[in-house]
User: Fold this.
Amino acid sequence: MTLPQIIVDLMKLLFDMAVPAAICTMVLAGVALRQEGGVNFQVGGRFQRWALWSVILLTLPQFLSWFAAQGISMPPQGANISSPWVMSVEGSITQFVSNVVVARLTPVLAAFCVLKAVLDGAEGHNPLGSIIAAIFLLSASGMVQLMKGWNSGSEFATTDMLTSAWNFLAGTILPEAAGLAVVGAIFNYARHRPFMPLVGSGLAFLSVSAIWKLVLAMVG
Assistant:
């Protein structure tokens, strides 16, 4: 059965909207990160769910190809949009995400997180959570572009992207966090304040990959 051209155009529109939608879900993940603490996050919380949706959206064609490989009939993905109206809708949504969400809304949300950090510091609380959330929000678009490069193009691209995200976290982010923890420990030592928890945190950040491999060895 041949699908009407308008249905094909709408399906192509949905596939083309995957990347802008992934940027929006990544921004929502940044907001959820601050609500869950900023420095830490809840297992199975909204931050993880929004981040997972970003991965699924970025690997949507490969995700559906797995079902197609199992013999399930899937809608065509390579068709071109022939309707000028649908093309204008796609262009409007793409420009909205780029010119409004990324260029204007996200910096404002990050600015409010910076304000929250100042207020947290004025009340004697740790401002680091709000600062990390602000950095995450400002890098949401760049993070999506980085994740697009992790797309293996295979039927298992979704899980491959999650694995690449874990490797990036363990190999890039955590060593930098360990360095910041050591710097904080030095400042605390100079100010005669407790510094061993920061030293322990730095060592733990550097040992995450080793601990994970130890867990795998114990299970195997």
In short: The mean pLDDT is 86. The chain has two domains: 1-153, 156-220.
